Structure formats: structure tokens, C-alpha cells
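A.,

Following up on our hallway conversation. C-alpha cells first:
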């Protein structure tokens, strides 16, 4: 898959802003482009380039603290749309996919049995949504592109934690087609639990039904919830990332859990990983107040159970399991 890095736009923006020190932040699979981009930009401008070696999981994961620490004038963030307002100059490069999806869809469309479809995609497929909608309608499908909601940047845009646009139209559709990767398609499947979700996989150029992955995750979530329900000592995790920082909600959650007899500590972290948490021997389980997908997608990485904020509402008796499934597992 080829992506548009918008090199000329970056160069023009740097010149226009008169930026002298630039930090590039690239997603995990694209960091290999860092050297090429930095050398190209330095050759076309009078600026100094630095590459963030930290995580870049979404528009919520901006390297603002790194940028401030090394005194740069501009953060160039690749692969995502704006998610959260920060008091720092950020240039978003969406990395639009340079691909014609129609030839592949012609070969794969027989796999889509539903006739009334929602059509959504990651930010890389913003420009393809219209063409794909037209093709599918010519094939006899009824297509709805959901309006943008919450953290979505445009109609039909889905990110790891934002599928509320799909929830709004769930009663109107028989299926959903996601342009992107399994991360986005699984989020849609965990939102539309009773509706088939199809992934157009950017890596395999095939259409895949997400039912097996969805059912596996739902079983894992039920197990995690049951394990956390049984324990007394709980750690509430607060991430320092600009778009994932939820200290106020964590403090409210702590008070409510203590009312039902839990012993609770709030743990501040820069990055979730097993090594960070393993030393909290006395804590038997965790509640993730940052990205709700951490508890879901990283289930197998942690020895102790972890649930997200929505799932925690079940512990408090404020939400039932069926109510959670109706809302979707992956929102804030």
C-alpha cells in the first residue's frame, strides 16, 4: 500500500510558519520513512529535523511533551486526523491511500451478503468513500455513510474509540463495510454486535467477515469482567497522553468503587505495558481510563484482568451486559 506523505505541503508549511526546529511523529509501521523525510525536508528548508521514537497510536497520542522538551516550533503528526485541541502547533498529515479500490471490490463483492450497508473507513480512505459508495449502489446495495460524531473528523470516519455514528444508524442497516484494517473493523464489530461487519483489508486486498474475531473478543471481555468483579484491590490507570488523560473521571470512579467495598489506587502512567504494571503486586486487576481499546486488544499481554471505563459501569450496577453491547464496548 502506498500513502501520500504530502512532502511538498510540509515544506511549504514550514517555510510559511518560518519554523526552524521540527519534530516528526510517525506511526509504528511507518517510522522507516523518518530518515528519508527528515533528509528531504532539511534539504528544502533551513530547519532542523528530529524524529519521535515514542508511540503514535492515534490522534490522541500527540508527542507534545517531547516537542516542548526539545524546543521545536512545529510537530508534524502522520497518519491521523485532528482528535484533541492542544496548545502547540501541530500539522496533521493524514497519509491518504494511493489506491483504486474498485477492481478489488469487483472480485470480492460476492462475499457481502447484506444489501443495506453502512460504509466507513479510516482517515486514509476519506477520498475513496464516494467512489466505493457509487460502485456498491451500482451493484444494487443501499449505502449509508454515517454522519461524523464525537471524535470523528468527517462523515464515515472511524477511529479506534469512535463508532457512535454507526450506533445512530444501526437500526437502518443489515451490515457494515469498513475500509482499513482489522483494528477499525473489530471496533465496528464490537459496536454493531448483532450486525455482520465486513473488512476490506488494506494489507490483503480481500473482504473478510469479522464474526469470529468479534465472538472471541466478547468471550474475553466477559471473562475479564467476571475476574475484576471478584477481586477487591483494583488499580485505576490514568495515561498522560493529551487525548487519553482522564484523571477527573478516574477520581470519580475511585469514589464509586470504594462505596461498593473495593480498595482502589490511581496509577499514573506514560505508556501502558506489562512491565510498567507488574511491580504492583498487591493490585489484582486494573481499569483502563485511557484508550478503551487497550483493555480489549491487549487482553493476552497482561496476567491480571483489565477492563475499560464502560465495562466498569457494570461493576457499579449502572449498566447491564446487554446495555453495554447496545452502546458498544469501545467508546469513552
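Then the amino acids I'd put at each of the 332 positions:
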Amino acid at each position: 500500500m502506498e500513502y501520500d506523505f504530502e512532502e511538498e505541503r510540509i515544506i511549504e508549511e514550514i517555510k510559511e510558519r518560518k519554523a526552524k526546529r521540527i519534530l516528526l511523529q510517525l506511526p509504528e509501521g511507518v517510522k522507516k520513512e523518518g530518515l528519508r523525510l527528515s533528509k528531504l525536508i532539511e534539504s528544502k528548508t533551513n530547519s532542523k529535523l528530529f524524529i519521535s521514537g515514542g508511540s503514535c497510536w492515534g490522534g490522541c497520542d500527540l508527542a507534545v511533551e517531547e516537542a516542548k522538551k526539545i524546543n521545536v516550533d512545529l510537530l508534524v503528526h502522520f497518519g491521523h486526523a485532528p482528535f484533541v485541541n492542544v496548545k502547540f502547533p501541530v500539522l496533521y498529515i493524514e497519509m491518504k491511500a494511493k489506491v483504486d479500490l474498485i477492481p478489488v471490490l469487483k472480485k470480492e463483492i460476492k462475499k457481502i451478503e447484506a444489501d443495506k450497508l453502512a460504509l466507513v473507513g479510516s482517515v486514509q480512505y476519506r477520498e475513496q468513500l464516494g467512489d466505493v459508495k457509487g460502485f456498491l449502489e451500482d451493484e444494487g446495495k443501499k449505502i449509508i455513510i454515517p454522519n461524523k460524531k464525537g471524535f470523528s473528523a468527517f462523515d464515515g470516519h472511524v477511529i479506534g474509540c469512535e463508532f457512535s455514528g454507526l450506533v445512530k444508524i444501526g437500526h437502518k442497516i443489515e451490515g457494515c463495510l469498513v475500509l482499513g484494517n482489522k483494528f477499525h473493523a473489530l471496533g465496528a464489530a464490537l459496536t454493531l454486535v448483532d450486525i455482520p461487519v465486513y473488512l476490506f483489508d488494506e494489507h490483503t486486498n480481500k473482504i473478510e467477515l469479522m464474526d469470529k474475531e468479534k465472538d472471541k473478543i466478547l468471550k474475553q471481555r466477559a471473562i475479564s469482567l467476571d475476574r475484576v468483579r471478584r477481586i477487591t484491590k483494583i488499580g485505576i490507570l490514568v495515561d498522560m497522553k493529551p487525548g487519553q488523560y482522564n484523571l477527573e473521571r478516574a477520581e470519580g470512579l475511585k469514589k464509586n468503587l470504594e462505596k461498593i467495598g473495593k480498595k482502589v489506587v490511581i496509577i499514573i502512567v506514560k505508556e501502558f505495558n506489562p512491565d510498567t504494571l507488574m511491580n504492583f503486586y498487591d493490585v489484582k486487576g486494573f481499569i483502563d481510563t485511557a484508550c478503551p481499546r487497550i483493555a480489549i486488544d491487549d487482553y493476552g499481554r497482561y496476567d491480571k484482568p483489565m477492563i475499560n471505563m464502560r465495562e466498569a459501569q457494570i461493576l457499579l450496577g449502572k449498566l447491564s451486559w446487554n446495555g453495554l453491547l447496545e452502546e458498544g464496548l469501545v467508546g469513552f
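The chain has three domains: 3-95, 102-209, 217-327. Curious whether your intuition agrees with the design.

B.
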